[in-house]
Amino acid sequence: MAAPAQPARVVALPEGVPVEQLVRRTLSGDRSAESLLYRRFAPTVVTMATRLLRSSSAAEDVVHDAFIIAFGRLRQLADPAQFRGWLVTIVVSLVRRRLRRERLLRFVGLDGEPEASLERFARPGSSVEARGELAMLSDTLRALPANLQLAWGLRYVEGEKLEEVAAHLNKSLSTTKRYLAEAEARISQRVSIEPAEGQP
Amino acid sequence: MSRLPRAVKTVLDEPDVTPAVQRTWVRLERTRARAPSPGRLLLLSSALAAAVAGFIVSRPVSGLTRQSVALNVPVPVPAGPPPTRLEVVTAPAPLASAMLQGRARRVARRVSAETQLADPVGHFLEGAVEAFTDGDAARAAALLSRVATEFPDDPRTPEALVTLGWLQLEHLDAPQEAKASLEKAMESALSQELFDRAWPLLQKAQLRAAQRRD
């Protein structure tokens, strides 16, 4: 009788190995380096995708597909030190596809993936008002086009720099600023939020 | 009144993603284990090329004794039922159903152009969904437009028209065209559910078209 298949495991390797080295070792076929690469970056992108999509199951699908693409195209990564940014860009493009699809599904009367509210991720002890504003923010974001949702979410929910947001969206800096301004205009109509820098 | 901080992340808890990370790793390993290796792909494509050309090696080559195999001897095709071909049964279905079936159809699309021709409306609807998902609203609208003009009697056409109106209004900044599409949709016998979706859109399109004229 054949032995039962062992469940796949993320191999533990010493932390602190530079990402460039992990990428090079992965490219040379070192599976333990690959699993460490996954272990190092998966939590970040799972968290990010979960908050951007407001759905854990959809986020898992996206992260799965993103790593399939990333490991399959690793040779195309010009600078191994930029692995994180490159991976996030792949994740963002998959999230965008999903958001667009969800938007169309909702329009034609299908609910699509069940979504949670950002309120679900509120810190324990958050005030009722803060939770209410988070719920309102979630609803407002959901109604925005995918690019606007992503630009605002990456900038203010994930705390990415403006230049990084533009790079992840694969848009120019001016287009990204326009997306942020459009999203801001709609969000501030419904949600009580601190004004952006330079605004009253 | 308390305001949400601009850096929203500061009021959010870091979710425990460890189970999700582990589950995804297991899925990743399984997916990659199923994916054919380049060697297997090469073998498969060679076999396919041989089959297409009508030549096939029927004698097994065993062990270390390499025998000369006549590759150019055509193998007679045995009489009997035709080889199984992947058929796509495309019963008329609304756009929503076409979207849900999109994944299965994408797999099938590689197989035969004939199957696409069996249900051109379904094919256009799927194409529209794909195009929109890829960020190409203009192409999605063009495909829905073809459904409306080439297949006016198809039961899916009213829904295609309402969706076209929505695309033109919300994604292509073309209220006049949206108004025309939605009015055309209204002329057909819309279901109550479709009417409820189309009516507010038409009002919005009329308003924006009027503002545009002014």
Q: How are the elements arranged and paired?
A:
The complex is a heterodimer of chains A (200) and B (214).
Chain A: H1 19-27, H2 31-53, H3 56-72, H4 83-107, H5 128-143, H6 146-157, H7 162-169, H8 173-190
Helix pairs in contact in A: 1-2, 2-3, 2-4, 3-4, 4-7, 5-8, 6-7, 6-8, 7-8
Chain B: H1 18-34, H2 38-53, H3 95-100, H4 102-109, H5 113-118, H6 120-133, H7 137-150, H8 157-170, H9 175-187, H10 192-213
What does this entry show, briefly?
The complex is a heterodimer of chains A (200) and B (214). Chain A has 200 residues and is mostly helical. Chain A has helices spanning 19-27, 31-53, 56-72, 83-107, 128-143, 146-157, 162-169, 173-190.
> For the largest interface in this structure, which chains are involved and how many residues does each contribute?
A-B, 54 and 45 residues
Structural class of chain B: mainly alpha
> From N to C, what is the helix and strand string of chain B?
HHHHHHHHHH
Strand content of chain A: under 5%
Report how far the terminal alpha carbons of chain B are from each other. Answer: 41 Å
- State Rg of chain A: 19 Å
Q: In terms of per-residue confidence, which ranges of chain A show pLDDT below 50 for 5 or more consecutive residues?
A: 7-11
Average pLDDT of chain A, rounded to a whole number, is 86
Percent of residues of chain B in helical segments? 55-70%
Rg of chain B over CA atoms, rounded to whole Å, is 27 Å
Q: What is the approximate shape of chain B?
A: flat
Biggest beta-sheet profile of chain B? none
Output the structural class of chain A.
Answer: mainly alpha
